[in-house]
Design goal:
This protein has two domains: 175 residues, Growth Hormone, Chain: A, CATH 1.20.1250; 201 residues, Growth Hormone, Chain: A. Helices cover 75% and strands 1% of the residues. The protein has 14 helices and two strands. α1 runs parallel beside α7 and α1 packs antiparallel against α8.
């Protein structure tokens, strides 16, 4: 059973990793879209993340077997990816990828809920299953980079093929019928409104605000790093970017040790500091002798992601009442992957356009130093505000005496 769930996660995230990292390069270098347009396309997944709770709550929880919902969404998604790969107009391409994101983003929660239903101890067992999703992302990055198709629509077609495979694989998964089929549907079941009162606690409010704000500079990385690396002449940029996911796996294993020695506040702060350092590395780095700085900026992704998002999930699980944990996790997901990434996609595109330059041959280049320094400055402001305003409630009671500082 666990291996079946691991393969499910591998296919699930391989689909996303196949196209999302390099789409900005295709849009910028081949279709000559503006930075604002590239950011808007990258932000389609954020809109999907904001709307996806409605799909999950209504379809899988109350109407259909999760396997069938997953299969249907991935089949429709495959068709939309093929259509998107044929487009060159921004309006049509944006609408197509937005429709695709509305299909794909709900599957992230659906695969998680399906896995949770079929393992005995999610807290102990889910991590070893979810890590295969990261492996799937890495494999696709290596394939796309080695294939040399980052500036083409081929990654979209690759993702479409994987979506078809995933749709078929869904029917090999165990039956997962809806648990709330006979319960009356209410909007509070799918929107995390009931957890809003937790924000009366200052530290929880500061954490929620910081989670939203830090995702704004985060979108600079997701939307434009591959375009940046290709523009400055880095070979196999997509393959090199998988170093971020590799470091993510290592940092995931180190979280328990750091959690005991640093605590929530300083782990979250280290995660945000890593984003400041990453963008500084990108601003000052380059090919040749300065390539090590680009490598360091990429590898810092593990600390950037795990020390903030994963530790944040642990913090919510610790602070929120048991009855509101799922709703609160949903609220933070809405603020980060939804609202924060959406605002970040708009802001990053605007900044990239501001520092775009056209040479005598008509080719568009960018002042990447200025772009990355702005992103780093945004992350630094969030870091300072967080350190000054956030106070962690010491949870020594939950730490074994032998491990307590």
């Amino acid at each position: 059973m666990k291996w079946r769930l691991r393969l499910m996660m591998l296919f699930e995230f391989a689909i996303w990793g196949a196209w999302y990292v390099t789409v900005g390069t295709w849009l910028g270098q081949t279709l000559h879209f503006t930075g604002t347009e590239i950011g808007a396309v990258a932000g389609t997944t954020a809109i999907g993340a904001m709307i996806s709770p409605l799909f999950v709550g209504l379809l899988a929880d109350r109407l259909f077997d999760t396997r069938r919902v997953l299969a249907l969404l991935h089949i429709v998604g495959a068709v939309l990816l093929v259509v998107a790969a044929q487009q060159s107009s921004f309006a049509v391409l944006y609408a197509t990828l937005l429709a695709y994101s509305l299909c794909y983003m709900p599957t992230l929660a659906l695969t998680t809920s399906l896995a949770m239903r079929h393992i005995d101890d999610p807290q102990e067992e889910f991590g070893a299953i979810r890590v295969f999703g990261t492996l799937g992302w890495i494999v696709m990055g290596l394939i796309v980079g080695a294939w040399g198709v980052e500036a083409t629509a081929s990654p979209l077609l690759l993702a479409a093929g994987l979506s078809v495979v995933m749709a078929g694989y869904c029917f090999t998964l165990p039956p997962t019928p809806p648990l709330a089929r006979h319960k009356q549907f209410e909007i509070r079941h799918v929107l995390p409104l009931e957890s809003l009162h937790l924000l009366r606690n200052r530290s929880m409010a500061v954490f929620a605000l910081a989670s939203f704000l830090i995702c704004i500079p985060l979108q600079f990385y997701y939307a434009f790093t591959n375009l940046f690396l290709n523009e400055i002449g880095v070979v196999n940029a997509a393959g090199k970017m998988t170093g971020g996911q590799m470091s993510e796996i290592l940092c995931m294993l180190l979280i328990p040790w750091f959690f005991r020695h640093l605590g929530v506040k300083y782990m979250l702060a280290v995660g945000m500091l890593a984003w400041v350092l990453r963008y500084a590395m990108f601003a000052f780095g380059g090919t040749g002798e300065l390539m090590w700085m680009l490598w360091l900026g990429i590898i810092l992704h593990g600390i950037c992601f795990d020390f903030f998002f994963v530790v944040g999930q642990i913090y919510i699980d610790r602070e929120a009442p048991a009855a509101l944990r799922a709703a609160t996790q949903g609220l933070i997901t809405f603020l980060t992957y939804g609202l924060g990434m959406f605002v970040g996609s708009w802001m990053s595109g605007l900044v990239v356009d501001t520092y775009a330059r056209t040479d005598a041959q008509g080719a568009v280049t960018h002042d990447w130093y200025a772009i990355w320094m702005i992103a780093g400055a945004c992350a630094a402001v969030v870091l300072v505000l967080f350190v000054l305003l956030f106070k962690d409630r010491k949870a020594t009671a939950s730490i074994p005496v032998a491990d307590a500082n």
